[in-house]
Design a protein that fits this description.
The complex is a heterotrimer of chains A (about 350), B (about 375) and C (about 280).
Chain A lengths: L3 E10 L2 E11 L4 E5 L6 H9 L6 E6 L2 E2 L10 E4 L11 H11 L4 H14 L15 H13 L5 E5 L7 H18 L2 E6 L2 H7 L2 E6 L2 E6 L1 H6 L4 H6 L6 E5 L2 E2 L5 E5 L2 E4 L12 E5 L4 E4 L7 E11 L2 E7 L5 E7 L2 H5 L4 E7 L5 E4 L7
Parallel strand pairs in A: 3-8, 3-9, 6-7, 7-8
Antiparallel strand pairs in A: 1-2, 1-4, 4-5, 9-10, 11-15, 12-13, 13-14, 15-21, 16-20, 17-18, 17-20, 18-19
Chain B lengths: L3 E10 L7 E11 L4 E5 L6 H9 L6 E6 L2 E2 L10 E4 L11 H11 L4 H14 L15 H13 L5 E5 L7 H17 L4 E5 L2 H7 L2 E6 L2 E6 L1 H6 L4 H6 L6 E10 L2 E7 L5 E6 L14 E6 L5 E2 L7 E13 L4 E7 L2 E7 L10 E7 L3 E5 L5 E4 H4 L3
Parallel strand pairs in B: 3-8, 3-9, 6-7, 7-8
Antiparallel strand pairs in B: 1-2, 1-4, 4-5, 9-10, 11-12, 11-14, 12-13, 14-20, 15-19, 16-17, 16-19, 17-18, 20-21
Helix pairs in contact in B: 2-3, 2-4
Chain C lengths: L2 H31 L3 H5 L12 H8 L1 E4 L2 E4 L2 H32 L5 H10 L6 H14 L5 H26 L2 H10 L3 H12 L1 H17 L2 H6 L7 H4 L4 E2 L2 E2 L1 H26 L11
Chain lengths: ~350, ~375, ~280
């Protein structure tokens, strides 16, 4: 029996059906990421689980019991909001102490626990500040401290890193798992950033059109996405998608036209002859070089854009197909400007094939 | 298509009831014909004020701005022959998207057929072809931003100014449009200056970048220069994502040899290594307080036996796989290092790991002034 | 003279004219309160006169000297009545209205908007509409000429005001702050008491002040439903239209005195009115 269960939850706003029969199971101590583009209903789902919003249909079960008739104050869930939701008229200490006060804990215990969690999240030096005196990063940590201080059984985080500086985001993304482990929390983490999803989730639930398109481990989502929409959401630059019609050649091998060049698709495409497909190749699986490579596609290097620790190249095939390739940081490539001719080779072992009509992975 | 020169440009804002604000101080750069320049810095650093002065929407308190040989700072915005894409898009609501884009062309009496062809070309570039018949208020923020860009890029002007040109862009389009826009600007030899708070964007697009902080130019160089040879602590910390690891350190003497003692946040020793006894290492004087920096992707995991690499051992605190790269957080004596590695590296929590810090990847900054004292590439005589 | 300076002078001049236009009646009343009836009625009106405090003395002591002799005047009692009635009415409206405003703001229930609008509509209707039947009922129940009766009827004036203004302020508070408080483990009542009301304090103060002013100024309710016992200053000023003529000086003095309580209240609540909402605890 999973610790947190969402069973067939549906919610509409006016005519707009936001969540359509959603189900999810979260094991105790697991961190499940709910990932999806903005407006897909992730925050609404969290609010329904928290009990501050009522679903049209469906139930939420926590610890083996239905909580549909239990108010938010008694469900044993804690939530860190995207916009922090700190109490403006109380200082950071009182904000963090609030859940302990609700449980009428003795003053000594409150002091000790607030200082402990503030120290762990490195905000113990600003406990006497009012929210308006805190930086965004500190507000976010205060909000997190408040949700952790009483050791909740279920912890929900609503895109907590969204409103935090890019620099601090990297630090916090690396710190959060340590905090979760320390408290053995069952965590539901909502985000639009695929990197956070891959980094933090034991499993990821991809929420689209009101239901979970795929719920799987990060490796499975990235390497075996259920359809092209899921594949496109993970990865920056996004996966290259080429419409192809594989054909069996005289030698029995299957080929397709990619970028105007006839490319052998390898044994994995054996079943696909004659079918309209879409070939998905991630930029890191496209190798570009100036020397001719076997099985490569002749391309023109149109632009080189350094991208953090990698270098992204825009390649144009003779039939105007655009291919994005990425490689670890390459300063020499970035230095020269202007178009140059070269060759692009696709790693077909790692390529993904999707059905052209439905988008499902083949 | 011309060069752009800013000479000792200063801007002071005089607001009633408040002390005058020095927005831009003694700013001088020269942009070559056809170059793409990025102005970056955190908010309030003066980058937008500088752009607006080039455009003519702000007056200059001191200094001159020249396009080619023409001094333009006294001219009205409309007389300067600059094209601008605004942060707030500033589209004309009663005109269709296609008319918005073609506006300046039609005003200059370009024949309709040619104008239409150009509009189509730019629309394809920015993927707004199916929006051409719509009106601005019905578009999303990202779509409006692309229309605003199209309107600026279609013009022929001496200089193109772009104010946060891609901030609202849909994430799945960003990588491709960045590359396409860069290609377009280079192919058409368009001298461009763009302002952005996102240093990733600047590093991707620009030939050279001007980093500003509180109105003062910190460094003006190519992306590689800024990455490999940041001139001070601010540039080192601002450029690059994930940010450069910066640790406090002090040089101590052990007889004739010197050691660099790297400290954790509390100030005690985290780890140390010997300073090479070479002439280039002279700036690392005994007793000097420094910041040592190394970029996350330069740290090597399980280094092999040779080369100018300092080895340290620490505990893995976090390990995250992000598809095409992996992040590791490693604690060495209470100092925290972030490193980015190849996609296939995973390490278990609390396991021990040996890391290599190549000398060539180290940067040293003075503790007090923040100025760069030595770059690792100098140490190797590279 | 530079263009900017000329513009500023003209703008200042126009503002001065507007200010004078609005303040002039009050200034004139203030002057009148220090004049005797003869000075006031003199034609042409003149700005110079010998000031006298006889009007104020008359009000405070309770006797007016007229040409026909002394008349008793119950101004101080009326002033007390006004203060008492307005304060009680506002207090009752706050106790009833603030939780109601919270309910309307936070709980979406069927017919919620309709009920709220009905309550507001009481302000649209002219009081005359209900006064005649009300007087008969009040006489029957024994509420005629009582404080309780008037305070109750004053709710028609004060309650909708408080309800609508305070509801707006509650709606402005990000619901997430209260959700967070509930998730911490507090009940909805504690959330209203400890979070919503403190954060809406500027709005509650503003609404309370406005309600006090409207209650203070009300005339027709007290006129019809009350008599000498509970008369507020608005009705009480009718007494200055005596058989021997209208005592303008005394009326002016009574006006000046009657403004003072509301003025003091406004100054006191001012510091609550300028408090900012949200205080940066919610992003944006």
């Amino acid at each position: 029996m999973a610790y947190l269960e969402v069973r067939g939850v549906a919610k509409s706003f006016g005519k707009k059906k936001l969540l359509d029969g959603l189900s999810l199971e979260v094991e105790q101590g697991e961190c499940v990421v709910v990932f999806g583009p903005s407006g897909c209903g992730k925050t609404v789902l969290l609010r329904i689980i928290a009990g501050v919003l009522e679903p049209d249909r469906g139930e939420v079960w926590i610890g083996g019991k239905s909580v549909m008739n239990v108010g938010p104050e008694a469900r044993g869930v804690a939530m860190a909001f995207q916009n922090f939701a700190l109490y403006p008229h109380m200082d950071a200490f009182e904000n963090i102490a609030s859940p302990l006060r609700a449980r009428s804990r003795p003053e000594e215990e409150i002091k000790q626990r607030v200082h402990e969690i503030a120290g762990l999240l490195r905000i113990d030096h600003v406990l006497d500040h009012l929210p308006k005196q805190l930086s965004n990063g500190q507000k976010q940590r205060t909000s997190l401290a408040r949700s952790l201080v009483h050791g909740p059984s279920v912890l929900m985080l609503d895109d907590p890193l969204r409103n935090v500086d890019a620099k601090i985001r990297y630090e916090m993304r690396l710190e959060l798992p340590r905090v979760f482990r320390k408290f053995h929390s069952t965590v539901l983490y909502v985000t639009q950033d695929y990197k956070e999803a891959l980094a933090l989730g034991d499993r990821i639930g991809v929420l689209m059109d009101g239901h979970f398109e795929q719920v799987d481990t990060p490796a499975a989502i990235y390497g075996s996405p259920r359809n092209r929409r899921v594949a496109s959401l993970f990865g920056d630059p996004p996966i290259n998608l080429f419409p192809i019609r594989p054909e069996r050649g005289g030698d029995g091998a299957v080929h397709a036209q990619i970028g105007g060049q006839r490319v052998a698709l390898g044994p994995r495409a054996a079943e696909l002859a004659g079918r309209d497909c879409v070939l998905g190749v991630r930029p890191e699986d496209v190798a570009f070089g100036f020397d001719q490579a076997e099985g490569g596609i002749p391309v023109e290097l149109a632009a080189v854009t350094p991208f953090n620790v990698r270098t992204v190249t825009l390649l144009k095939a003779p039939d105007a197909t655009e291919i994005l390739a990425s490689r670890p940081e390459d300063n020499s490539l970035a230095a020269a400007r202007g178009h140059r001719k070269g060759w692009a080779r696709i790693d077909l072992d790692r390529a993904l094939f999707f059905d052209a009509a439905s988008g499902a992975r083949l | 298509m011309a060069s752009l020169t800013l000479d000792h440009v200063t801007k002071i804002f005089d607001q009633k009831g408040r002390p005058p604000t020095l927005a831009v101080k003694d700013f001088s750069i020269r942009v070559e014909d056809g170059e793409i320049i990025g102005l970056v810095g955190s908010s309030g650093c003066g980058k937008t004020s500088t752009l607006r002065m080039i455009a003519g929407f702000e007056s200059i308190t001191e200094g001159t701005i020249r396009i080619g040989e023409r001094t333009i700072n006294k001219l009205k915005a409309s007389e300067r022959n600059v094209a601008m894409a605004f942060e707030g898009y500033a589209l004309y609501p009663p005109l269709r998207v296609s008319d918005n884009i073609a506006f300046s062309l039609l005003r200059n009496k370009v024949p309709k057929a040619r104008a239409d062809a150009k509009v189509k070309m730019v629309a394809e570039l920015l993927e707004i072809t199916d929006l051409l018949g719509l009106y601005p208020p019905t578009l999303s923020g990202g779509q409006q931003q692309r229309v605003s860009l199209a309107r600026a890029l279609i013009r022929s002007a001496d200089v193109f100014l772009l104010d946060e040109p891609m901030s609202q862009l849909e994430p799945h389009l960003r990588a491709k449009l960045r590359a396409r826009i860069k290609d377009y600007l280079i192919q058409n030899k368009m001298t461009s200056v763009f302002v952005t708070h996102d240093q990733t964007e600047a590093m991707a697009l620009a030939d050279r970048i001007a980093v500003m902080d509180e109105g003062v130019l910190q460094q003006f160089g190519s992306p590689v220069d800024l990455k490999e040879r940041p001139s001070n602590l601010f540039v080192a910390g601002f450029i690059g994502e994930p940010p450069m690891n910066l640790l406090k350190a002090q040089v101590t003497a052990e007889g004739r040899a010197r050691r660099l003692v790297v400290q954790n946040e509390q100030g005690s020793q985290a780890f140390s290594f010997g300073v090479p006894d070479r002439a280039e290492a002279a700036p690392l004087k005994s007793g000097r307080r420094l910041y040592v920096g190394i970029r996350p992707h330069k740290i090597v995991v399980a280094p092999s036996g040779n080369g100018a690499v300092e080895r340290v051992t620490g505990t893995v605190v976090s390990s995250q796989w992000l598809g095409d790269q992996s992040y590791l957080g490693v604690e060495i004596g209470d100092a925290f290092l972030i490193l980015v590695a190849d996609r296939s590296i995973r390490a278990a929590h609390d396991s021990q790991i040996t890391l290599g810090l190549p000398y060539g990847a180290l940067h040293f900054f003075d503790s007090d002034s923040g100025e760069a004292v030595l770059h690792g590439s100098d140490l190797l005589g590279a | 003279m530079s263009k900017g300076l000329l513009r500023r002078v003209i703008r200042g001049g126009l503002l001065l004219v507007v200010v004078l236009f609005f303040l002039f009646p009050m200034f004139w009343v203030l002057l009148m309160s220090f004049q005797t009836n003869q000075d006031i009625l003199r034609t042409p009106p003149s700005l110079t006169f010998t000031p006298t405090i006889s009007n104020y003395v008359a009000l405070i002591s309770g006797e007016i000297q007229t040409s026909v002799g002394t008349l008793p005047v119950y101004y101080m009692k009326n002033l007390w009545n006004s203060a008492f009635l307005s304060a009680c009415a506002v207090a009752m409206s706050l106790v009833l209205g603030v939780p109601a405003a919270y309910a309307f703001a936070r709980f979406k229930f069927r017919l919620g908007e309709d009920i709220a609008f009905t309550l507001l509509s009481f302000r649209f209707a002219p009081p005359i509409l209900v006064l005649l039947p009300l007087q008969l009922y009040f006489q029957d129940i024994g509420l005629y000429d009582t404080y309780l009766g008037l305070v109750w009827v004053y709710q028609l004036i004060t309650l909708p005001l408080i309800l609508w203004i305070v509801r707006g302020y509650f709606e402005d508070i990000s619901p997430d702050i209260e959700h967070a408080y509930r998730l911490d483990g507090h009940s909805w009542f504690r959330s209203m008491w400890k979070i919503a009301i403190p954060l809406a304090r500027p709005g509650i103060a503003a609404a309370g002040l406005l309600a006090f002013i409207f209650a203070w100024n009300s005339f027709i309710f007290a006129l019809v439903l009350g008599s000498s016992d509970v008369q507020p200053v608005t009705v009480g000023s009718l007494a200055f239209m005596t058989a021997s003529g209208i005592q303008y000086g005394t009326i002016a003095a009574s006006l000046v005195l009657s403004v003072i309580p509301t003025l003091v209240l406004a100054l006191y609540t001012q510091r609550y009115l300028v408090e900012g909402l949200s205080l940066g605890a919610v992003k944006g």
